[in-house]
Amino acid sequence: MKPLLVTLFLFLFFQAHSVWAQTGDPEAGERHYRGKFCYFCHGDNGEGGFGPDLAGGRGLTLDQFRRAIREPWGVMGNYTEQQLPDDRIVDIYAFVKSKTPVQAPGEWHWAKAPSSAHEGQQIYMQTAGCGQCHEPENGYGRMWLGEYAKNVDFDYFAKQIYDHTDKWPSGGMPNFSRERLPEAALREVYQWMVLDIGLRASMGARMSYGELEDDQITVNVQVRNRGIKELGLDVSGITLFIKVPDGRTVTGGTGTGYMGVQPLTTLGLEPRLRMAPHSHDDTGHVERPEQDLSGDVVVWKIPKMIAASTEELSFVLSGPAPTSEMANEFAGSTLHWENPGRNANGSPPIMVYRDLRLPDTGDHELVSLPTATFNELGISSENEIESTD
Ligand code: HEC
Ligand code: HEC
After folding, report:
1. C or N: which end of the chain has fewer Cβ atoms within 10 Å?
2. Lining residues, ligand 2, CB within 6 Å
3. What Cα–Cα distance (Å) separates residue 294 from each residue in 97, 142, 222, 270, 291?
4. What does the pLDDT look like over 161-206, one tens digit per residue?
5. Which of 83-97, 106-120, 320-334 comes out lowest in average pLDDT?
6. What is the domain extent for residue 88?
7. Does residue 263 sit in the same domain as residue 327?
């Protein structure tokens, strides 16, 4: 083909495929808007919050809208093409355009940190808006850092913020700009988040159904320290408790530190809260709701789990034939550990504004409920189990 023809051909090809020629799909747009957490800053329906209201489109053209996402004007992070492709921006634009503009922008998703909070936490909440996605203490960000704990100096940390998509190419967090969020400000965040409160261990426990016989079912629990070998945090003083569903008894258990059954009230530990309670004013104050401590729990106490280790535990439940609701009756089962807890590095915690899901001492996570269906176990397909997780 002659060069001119090739050029013309390519031109027509790109014309036909140009996303800008398409009209977006507002329903798909809503999914991407939620999936990429835009709503934490711009409101469920584009009513605004930490970020400006977008409902009605703010009078922006599609090109201006896209530019604001690829090369934001202010502190908002920028999203790469791989994280958020152009055609999805077209859909998000259609979604916000379909919403009625608001008179006044909405409330922040998470309230400001009070002026008595550590400078680093104020920058994290007020200046950069990290806390709109990560909540007051960045429980999960500190956990992902904890998997590589021995590598986490300021440079490693800064890379996760400025070049975030190197590790998470299609992740939910955008790359922040060094100009808009200068290193000096990020050092304050590092001091507060990584040095003062400390990194979290990356621990998880997952339940699954094992063998089913007459009126007995074996439940397996895998506990993992997801830290990277020789880099992640080692964990000690582990207590796992699993709620015993009403009307069932535990006839035995296996694995390191199996302690049998006891009433939850005698254990001295609380289930982890599923959702973090929000504060709606600038004091940051909020009460931790009362926990339900009724019923019995199966308990294991494991002295230590080093990074990249696994424990396989199990117990046997007897009682009436299992139903699809049984999985939900385990909800609230919790994996607790003493060390590292909040403030792992021993400096005083400056926590006027905190995530109330995390306990005062030690740390904990909810146990993932079984997701298998009884169908897979060879029982009637009506009894499908749905995880609430
Ligand atoms: C951490 C909070 C935060 C998140 C998350 C966020 N934004 Fe923003 N957004 C802002 C702020 C603050 C501004 C104001 C300009 C700036 O600071 O860059 C803004 C500005 C914008 C603008 C430009 C508005 C104007 O009038 O020019 C658009 C468009 C936009 N955001 C879209 C999005 C989309 C789409 C997403 C999700 C993919 C998103 N934002 C995620 C905080 C956020
Ligand atoms: C739009 C929501 C959002 C905002 C805003 C946000 N993050 Fe994140 N962050 C995430 C998500 C989601 C992940 C998990 C990885 C992914 O999907 O990108 C993450 C991961 C992290 C990690 C772990 C990285 C690793 O693998 O070691 C750290 C640390 C972190 N964020 C800190 C911050 C800080 C500090 C800010 C503010 C400057 C911030 N984040 C702003 C959503 C967000």
Report:
1. N
2. 37, 128-130, 132-134, 138, 141, 144-145, 160-161, 167-168, 171-173, 176, 181, 189
3. 49, 32, 25, 11, 9
4. 999 999 999 999 999 999 999 999 999 999 999 998 899 999 999 9
5. 320-334
6. 22-97
7. yes
